[in-house]
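Notebook, p. 212. Picked up where the previous page left off. The plan for this session was modest: take the two constructs that came back from the sequencing core last week, fold each one, and keep the raw output in the notebook itself so nobody has to go hunting through shared drives later. Recording the first one now, exactly as returned: residue sequence, then the structure token string.
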Amino acid sequence: MHSILGCNHPTFTLPWRTLLPYLMALHLLHLGSAQLRMVAPSLHVTAIVGQDVVLRCHLSPCKDAGSSDIRWIQHRSSGLVHHYQNGVDLEQMAEYKGRTELLRDGLSDGNLDLRITAVRSSDSGWYSCAVQDGHGYAEAMVDLEVSDPFSQNVHRWTVALAVVITILVGSFVFIVFLYRKQAAQSRELSESFQPLPPPKSL
């Protein structure tokens, strides 16, 4: 486990689940010019449906990013989640409209943190944070995993209900089978003990 210090950020532990996210981020850290570099303190962020979440990135070395072109992009669709340029928030994907905020208080320190409010299951996936200014271009990636406990509970109850119904139907079929078998045996037994006809008179 390692930790990376951001620009005036506390230490964040990198919960690397696999080697792939690390390799992707390491590759992106080398993109751009030698004068501009991007760091993602946490490659993997988790949240629950309905919560607010902050995706963090910062410039290294720390520098004022207030006049930079900053884009947070959803990797899956290549759509703009948030676009900031020269102090103005520009157009973004309809799915994120009104749900994102670039935390401007940290821009002067090189922090490009993005807050997403009321996250949805569809928000899960990789996001790239890209910045461009007169010194060059840099990019880093963050993976967001959104879980839905209610959906998981519904799935578990659905599976349990299906099992119960299967058991009940199987039990009913078995009981009907036993009943019919017993009825058939009773008829056979009754027929085997029928009284003999009376003898004929001479």
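Okay, moving on. Second construct, recorded in the same format:
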Amino acid sequence: MKDLTKVLEKYADLAVNVGINVQPNEGLIINANESGLPLAREIMKKAYAAGAKHLEFMMSDDAMSLARYNNAKDYVFDNFPEWKAELLIKLYESNYHHLYIIAPDPELLKDIPGDIVAKDQKAASTVMSPAQKYRMTGQTKWCIVAVPSEAWAKSVYPEKSSEEAIDALWDKIADATRVSMDNPVEAWTEHDMRLKKYKNYLNEKQFDKLVFTAPGTELEIGLADGHYWMGGSKLSHAGDAFVANIPTEEVFTTPHRYKVNGTVRSTKPLSHNGKIVDGFGFTFKEGKVVDYYAEKGKEVLDMMLSNDEGAKYLGEVALVQNDSPISNTGILFNNTLFDENASVHLALGRAYAYAMQDGSNATQDELEQRGANFSLIHVDFMIGGPEMEIVAYDKEGVSTPIFTKGNWTF
């Protein structure tokens, strides 16, 4: 990385003015760990310059998280502080929005028993669910960006020294997020328009189902009644555009909970709760996972699928062409934010309300009746590649190929 100072400045500009799209008199919450501090400081400058009224910084630390898992009594993992959800809700209702700077260690919790991690995550998800609804419905703007940590960089480039690995990962992140371009904000405006082209076409067609074919995959996914395709920027309740994930290459919608049948094989490893799952796949019948396997990390899937009943059903189907900036880097990022945007992917668990027509104004019962799935979890896994074929069918059974050899047909 030749000029990290300039990259941080451009990255912060992108996060503030495209990711969150900070407006005058809005507050901003920033979550980061030590690796994210340099970017957080730049974001603070840009956010105040954009008119933010206050920034609330929330710090995390991997070593402290690991110390908790290694030393806390078992009962600690059955409970999660309710005040954390209450604080976020209070901030969200006071016109605060949420920016996450992640710098993960993909295998931080590899030596922690899976049942402990699953129990802890379930307790946290249950308590935080009311706060999460603000983000899932668009009432609160949110954005996730990433910076290298030493552990993450070494997982991507194990043959390099720590310094070389961090520099190399920074280069790939800058390319994937378009920060390496002369004008990243302008580049994102153009990229957003391209994603909207696909989104608008699919919403106009309102296909009934999609059929996915690839090595190890033969899967039919029925779409929810009144599903809505999303891609690129979203609109908040206040009518402000924001981009929840930087980078993003996906166009996604809501599958019907009970209309998924067939088999699917993953094409990239999954990093979940500090553990790696690889070489895995699922069999679905009437929407539900009825069989699954994994060459590595099957116990992670065991815990994930037992979280609640909704964890066994799909909540998202996302289309990403193989010819994308992230896929073209030629590396495996070992991070879902990046790897999901290099590949067609699905998500087990919770559906997004805004990926349903008028979903943000509908009740959970109304969305469930239309086929949306609800769960405490939402876990993306990648299934795409250069051999992926996708055919869409309308209600009359007329077929339209929309992906061939891993890329859009139009």
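Notes on construct two before I forget. The chain has eleven helices and 20 strands.
Flagging for discussion at group meeting.
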